[in-house]
């Protein structure tokens, strides 16, 4: 595969600058390769993920936590890791693909979806233990970078060059949708988030946010004032106000206190690109990024400080697990599960 691609403005960039802001120094995407009609039997999409002794050290690119507190992380070679305590991990029993997975979402303790390269969409109904393959596009090197479901039926998936898909049957079938026209139509789409009011936001290239108040039927294009790509966001209620904090290239952070309609820049104190952000408690946020950067905010994202670093590996995703006191932060990286403050991680 080619090691470079063009962004929507014609500039050549490495996949590590495009793929959710991250990171893949090993795998790149070509913008000019179409889908093949029939894939060879050894195509990664057609081969089940293998159980690996060092799966905990696999490049992990996305993570989530179910309502019951189970952490699910997905990544390279179709690896899906599960943990019920944030310390001991095991691989999912059955994953039908070795394709790189880039996104994961759950609507309850049992039902979830994962997505990634080759247009792959997977589904689980047993809390991540076993997965089925719902969708694949052999050789179409336009990966899904984020997947989200409102309920058991209605879902969205987005990726490079303005690719946006919708499903009304739980991910079995998908239809292409257009978010906008003009210059914003082919921007790379990195992350889907929803606010407490039901507003759907898609965090995108060139400081763009796409906003829908009707579940994705109609979209507004929001110019946040940022020029660089935004790679992740977190939504929460700040004293009853629908608030969003988004992070991206060169340490840029922006904040909205009106449900994503308008945005203000927030100083991060770093030029390291930020790849994910998570809410740990009512007013405590953590953002992670390149060089193991971890930033903390204790006032709902109005101010951030560098509290400690999680090694040198680029942080690719953040998750949390509830405890008796404060929630425990779990960072993931290209080197797998990250140890923070001496806490060790192990594979069962």
UniProtKB/TrEMBL annotation:
Q: Do you know which InterPro entries this protein is assigned to? A: PSII_CF48-like_dom, WD40/YVTN_repeat-like_dom_sf
Q: Which UniProt keywords apply?
A: Hydrolase, Photosynthesis, Photosystem II
Q: Would the keyword Lipoprotein turn up in this protein's UniProt record?
A: no
The family database entries (Gene3D superfamilies) matched by this protein are listed as: YVTN repeat-like/Quinoprotein amine dehydrogenase
- List the molecular function annotations (GO) for this entry: hydrolase activity
Among the entry's GO cellular component annotations, what is one?
Answer: photosystem II
Q: Which GO terms describe its biological process?
A: photosynthesis
Indicate whether Hydrolase appears among the record's keywords: yes
Photosynthesis system II assembly factor Ycf48/Hcf136-like domain span: 92-240
Please report the name of this protein according to its UniProt entry: Glycosyl hydrolase
Q: Which organism is it from?
A: Glaciimonas soli
């Amino acid at each position: 595969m080619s090691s470079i691609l063009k962004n929507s403005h014609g500039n050549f960039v490495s996949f590590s600058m495009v793929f959710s802001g991250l990171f893949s120094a090993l795998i790149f995407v070509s913008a000019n390769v179409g889908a093949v009609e029939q894939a060879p039997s050894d195509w990664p999409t057609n081969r089940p993920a293998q159980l690996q002794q060092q799966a905990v050290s696999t490049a992990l690119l996305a993570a989530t936590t179910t309502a019951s507190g189970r952490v699910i992380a997905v990544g390279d070679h179709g690896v899906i890791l599960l943990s019920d305590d944030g310390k001991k991990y095991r691989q999912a029993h059955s994953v039908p693909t070795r394709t790189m997975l880039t996104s994961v979402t759950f609507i309850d303790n049992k039902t979830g979806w994962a997505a990634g390269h080759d247009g792959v969409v997977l589904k689980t109904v047993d809390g991540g233990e076993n997965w089925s393959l719902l969708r694949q596009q052999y050789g179409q090197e336009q990966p899904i970078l984020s997947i989200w479901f409102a309920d058991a039926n209605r879902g969205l998936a987005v990726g490079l060059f303005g690719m946006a898909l919708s499903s009304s049957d739980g991910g079995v079938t998908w239809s292409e949708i257009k978010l906008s026209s003009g210059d914003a139509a082919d921007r790379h789409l990195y992350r889907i988030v929803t606010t407490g009011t039901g507003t759907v936001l898609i965090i995108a290239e060139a400081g763009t946010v796409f906003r829908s108040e009707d579940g994705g039927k109609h979209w507004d294009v929001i110019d946040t004032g940022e020029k660089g790509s935004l790679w992740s966001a977190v939504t929460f209620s700040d004293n009853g106000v629908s608030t969003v904090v988004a992070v991206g290239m060169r340490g840029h952070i922006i904040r909205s206190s009106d449900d994503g309609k308008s945005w203000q820049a927030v100083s991060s104190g770093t030029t390291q690109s930020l790849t994910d952000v998570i809410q740990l408690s009512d007013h405590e946020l953590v953002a992670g990024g390149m060089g193991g950067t971890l930033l903390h905010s204790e006032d709902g994202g109005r101010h951030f400080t560098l509290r400690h670093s999680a090694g040198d590996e680029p942080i690719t995703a953040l998750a949390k697990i509830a405890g008796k006191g404060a929630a425990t932060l779990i960072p993931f990286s290209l080197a797998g599960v990250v140890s923070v403050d001496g806490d060790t991680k192990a594979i069962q």
